[in-house]
Design a protein that fits this description.
By secondary structure, this protein is an alpha+beta fold. It is built from five helices and six strands. The strands form two sheets. A three-stranded antiparallel β-sheet has the order 1-2-3. A three-stranded antiparallel β-sheet has the order 4-5-6, with no helix packed on it. Strand 5 and strand 6 form a beta hairpin. Helix 3 runs antiparallel to helix 4. The longest helix is centred in the N-terminal third of the chain and has 13 residues. The protein starts with a helix and ends with a strand.
C-alpha cells in the first residue's frame, strides 16, 4: 500500500490491511498474551520493559512492536493514519538506517548526523 492509497481508507480499514502484510503491527491483547508467556518463562526484564512502555504510552488498541528484538524494541501506539505511513511501500524517512548522511549547514560549522543516534560536529 502506498501513502496515497493509505489516505483513501479510514484508520481501521487501513490498519487491518497493513496487518496482513506487516509483522510489526500488533494488538494490545497480543502484547498482553506475549507478556504472560514471557513472565511464565521468567523473562522479567522483558516483561517490565513492555509493561512500562505500555503504561507510558497513550492507550491504544494497535501498537508497532518487533517481537524478535525483545528489549531492543519498544512498542509504540498506532492511533491515526500518520502513524501508519512508515508501513507503506513508498515511505522514505529523512534519516534512515542505511548510512545516509544529512549535513546541516550552520553559521560556524557543519553538523553531520548519522542514522538517528549519532552526531558529531566538524569545524
Amino acid at each position: 500500500m502506498t501513502i496515497k492509497q493509505l489516505y483513501k481508507f479510514d484508520f481501521d480499514t487501513a490498519i487491518k490491511q497493513l496487518m496482513a502484510t506487516q509483522d510489526d503491527i500488533t494488538m494490545i491483547d497480543s502484547l498482553k498474551e506475549y507478556m504472560r508467556e514471557k513472565l511464565n518463562e521468567d523473562y522479567f526484564n522483558l516483561v517490565t520493559h513492555l509493561a512500562e512502555a505500555l503504561h507510558n504510552s497513550a492507550s491504544a488498541f494497535y501498537y508497532s512492536y518487533d517481537y524478535s528484538r525483545g528489549t531492543f524494541a519498544t512498542p509504540y501506539p498506532l492511533t491515526d493514519l500518520t502513524d501508519l505511513e512508515q508501513f507503506c511501500t513508498d515511505y522514505k524517512p529523512i534519516l534512515n538506517y542505511q548510512k545516509e548522511i544529512l549535513t546541516m549547514k550552520t553559521k560556524t560549522k557543519d553538523i553531520i548526523l548519522y542514522d538517528n543516534y549519532y552526531s558529531r560536529e566538524r569545524e
